[in-house]
Amino acid sequence: MKELDRHAFLDCLNGIRLSWAHVELRDPYGVPADVEQVERWRRGESTQPAYYADFVPMVEGLTRRGCQIRRVKVVCEPLNDYHRWAYRPPTSMCWTTKSWCTCSSTETAGWSSGS
Question: Which segments constitute the DUF6879 domain (predicted)?
């Protein structure tokens, strides 16, 4: 598996025809643009609307077209600042199905997030 840059990731998302499932196993990703936005959020500043200007409308368009988008995020508890920031509006509202599970619950299910 290779890591995609933002442009390639958006291209993949935009190409969804029927459904897409995504499992995230890392806590924060450390993407420079995300790190900057989380720091702004921590200081009580609004994050830049342009940051999601292309992403949110594209995902909303996919869901309006009837594409099913499913996302499972394995998280550590308590939630870190990255997750509190990443899953607030507007990004939290544009997914059709989003689920959380804790690292400990994945271990009882027989697989681990590697944390």
Answer: 9-87
State the pLDDT confidence band at 115, using cuts at 50, 70 and 90. very low
* φ, ψ of residue 18 in degrees (nearest 5): -120, -55
The pLDDT value given to residue 43? 93
Output phi, psi for 51, to 5 deg: -60, -40
pTM above 0.90, yes or no: no
Residue whose token pair is 């508890």: 77
Q: What is the dihedral of CA 49, 55, 61, 63, to 10 degrees?
A: -110
Vertex 71 angle, CA 104 and 69, to 5°:
160
Q: Are 76 and 112 in contact (CB under 8 A)?
A: no
